[in-house]
Design a protein that fits this description.
242 residues, alpha/beta, eight-stranded mixed beta barrel, globular
Length: 242
């Protein structure tokens, strides 16, 4: 069972990453509620391996964008599937999408030999990079250390480090502990945008849409002195029930 602490206040730009886990029983996300909570961006799972595309991808990207949030998308790497096949599936799924926070490789396989890491990782980065640059990498702290040790390229780092109290140097997005957010049925990971370098941010993140102003009350009809009791006019029809 996951133990959830009280929500931690987050300064600056924060957002969420979402997949089908955030749609239990096919329940949609209420993006207006998420934006009203203060989230300014969302990164949506697009694909996994060579056979899965998130059925909520397009709807979630459109829903987040419609309320003024910045968006990104990610691919979950699967061991044993050719990198060129996986990267092609991912890039095809996001054709035509404007991704202010870019495209991301979700790299969290079990440990593997160094040569295999180098081959698979470089293949994914190159394949995605042919269509979307720069390519960001989401990974855990131990994998980040190994990628650095192998001198593999990390253009943007999205680090999963919920136990830390501050983001390490060089982190672009810091994934923190999951929390409850209004508008989402299940728990969702909370992400903090640490660096805005290279991101086409607007001058200010738009606020959540303001509610439409209430229509003015109709003016009261002028008083007319009646010579007969109200409703006695035989020409007046009955009001139909709505």
């Amino acid at each position: 069972m996951t133990t959830v602490s009280e929500p931690t206040p987050i300064s600056g730009h924060w957002g969420i990453d979402a997949a089908t886990w955030q749609h239990p029983a096919d329940e949609p996300i209420d993006w207006e509620e998420v934006r009203a909570e203060g989230a300014s961006f969302a990164i949506i799972k697009a694909t996994q391996g060579d056979s899965y595309t998130n059925p909520w991808l397009k709807r979630d990207l459109a829903g987040a964008r419609a309320v003024g949030m910045l968006v990104g998308a990610y691919h979950f790497y699967e061991v044993g599937v050719a990198p060129e096949v996986q990267s092609a599936r991912f890039t095809e799924s996001i054709i035509g999408e404007v991704l202010e926070l870019g495209a991301w490789l979700d790299w969290e396989p079990a440990d593997m030999p160094d040569w295999e890491v180098t081959t698979a990782y470089n293949g994914m980065i190159a394949g995605i990079g042919e269509a979307r640059r720069p390519v960001g990498v989401y990974t855990a702290q131990w994998w980040h250390a190994k990628l650095v040790e192998l001198k593999l390229p990390i253009h943007r780092l999205w680090l999963a480090a919920p136990s830390l109290t501050a983001a390490p140097d060089g982190v672009f997005i810091w994934q923190r502990a999951p929390q409850s957010v209004r508008g989402i049925v299940d728990l969702v990971d909370i992400d903090q945008l640490i660096s805005t370098r290279g991101v086409n941010l607007p001058h200010s993140i738009p606020s959540a849409p303001a509610p439409a102003p209430a229509a003015p009350a109709p003016a009261a009809p002028p008083e007319v002195e009646a010579s007969e009791p109200l409703g006695s006019d035989p020409a007046a029809g009955e009001v139909a029930e709505g």
